[in-house]
Prior knowledge:
Blueprint: H1 2-15, E1 23-34, H2 35-41, E2 46-56, E3 61-78, E4 85-102, E5 110-131, E6 136-158, E7 163-177, E8 190-205
Amino acid sequence: MIHTRLLLCLALGLAMPAMARPTFGFDVHVDTPLGDLKTDLGGKVGGGLSFLAGFELGRNLVLRPRLDLDVHPVSSFHRVGSHYREQVELDSVGLGADLLVGLTGTRNRGLYGIAGVGAMRWFQTFTATDYTHSTSSSDTETRKNRLSPWAALGLGWQFNRLVGVEVREVLSRYDSPQGGLEAPFTDVPTEARNASSLQAGVTFRW
């Protein structure tokens, strides 16, 4: 029994150096809306930040869990002759994972394909701000929108061990109130809309 335990510990000790350590990082990207999302946003470009972890599954395969935070501007209003401003946003928080498949080169340099799935919670946020020389006020109201699955396909290029670029098309669903996203805080019927966006960003890992 003791010999078996010693052999098991020795085998694990020999195997651990061969296992690649996980990588951690983030990416900063712009969101170009497509389809229904483009219509509801009036074509406005958004942006986001993603937190990433990478686990090597094989020579050309990496599993990459991700947490995504994205902001899509809907509309803004500025009252002439004052500092009063209203702003409406459609925001999302996503959790999921990508599978990265190396197509050329090595893990630290070359082209790779991306396929991902996960879940995404959408939010509608209304912010009103006003200030004078002596006082200021700010009021924010956020309502939960649809919780939807998301799927993504894309390509990436790794320049070196630390920096790369990616382009992903992400598909999901959100609710658009009757009359559009510019009035999201009235109790009106909603309809499910297709949320398609083209994300282009820079990735950093260590």
